[in-house]
Design brief:
Elements lengths: L7 H8 L30 E7 L3 E8 L5 E15 L5 E15 L5 E8 L9 E5 L5
Antiparallel strand pairs: 1-2, 2-3, 3-4, 4-5, 5-6
C-alpha cells in the first residue's frame, strides 16, 4: 500500500461498514452510456453495492472524488408461483426492470430505464434527463 492510499481503518471511519469495492470489482459503468455523452460525465472512483435478501434486487452507487454519487444502477425481478396442473409449482417472472443513471457535469442525470413484463420481451429501454438522482 503506498502512502497516498487511505488505510482500511480510515475507510471504515469514513464510509462505515459499507466498504468501497476494489477497482477490479467495479461494474461496467459506461457500457450503456452513449458515446456522445461520455465526455459529459465524471468517472466514479469507488462503488457501494447493495443487495436485497428477500427478493431479487440489487443496487450499485458510484461516487466521484468529492464523495458525491455520479452513477447509479438498480435491477429487480418480481416473480410469482405458477402451475400448469395445480400440483407442481414453479416461479415465473412477472416484471423486471434495470435502471442506470449518470450524473452530468451540469448536475442533471441521464437515465436509462428498461422495464420488461417478463425476462424475454424487452421494450429496448429509453433515455431521459432528470433534475435529481433517481431513487
Amino acid at each position: 500500500m503506498n502512502k497516498s492510499s487511505p488505510r482500511p481503518t480510515e475507510l471504515r471511519r469514513r464510509y462505515g461498514n459499507e466498504m468501497p469495492t476494489r477497482r477490479n470489482d467495479a461494474p461496467q459503468w459506461q457500457a450503456a452510456l452513449p458515446d456522445e455523452w461520455k465526455s459529459a460525465v465524471d468517472r466514479p472512483l469507488y462503488f457501494h453495492h447493495y443487495r436485497e435478501y428477500e427478493l431479487s434486487a440489487e443496487r450499485t452507487v458510484g461516487y466521484d472524488e468529492d464523495d458525491r454519487p455520479c452513477f447509479v444502477n438498480h435491477r429487480f425481478v418480481l416473480t410469482r408461483l405458477s402451475s400448469d396442473d395445480d400440483e407442481e409449482f414453479y416461479e415465473t417472472v412477472t416484471l423486471s426492470e434495470e435502471m442506470t443513471a449518470w450524473r452530468l457535469r451540469d448536475g442533471r442525470w441521464l437515465v436509462l430505464r428498461d422495464t420488461r413484463p417478463d425476462r424475454c420481451r424487452t421494450n429496448g429501454g429509453f433515455y431521459a434527463l432528470a433534475p435529481d438522482m433517481p431513487r
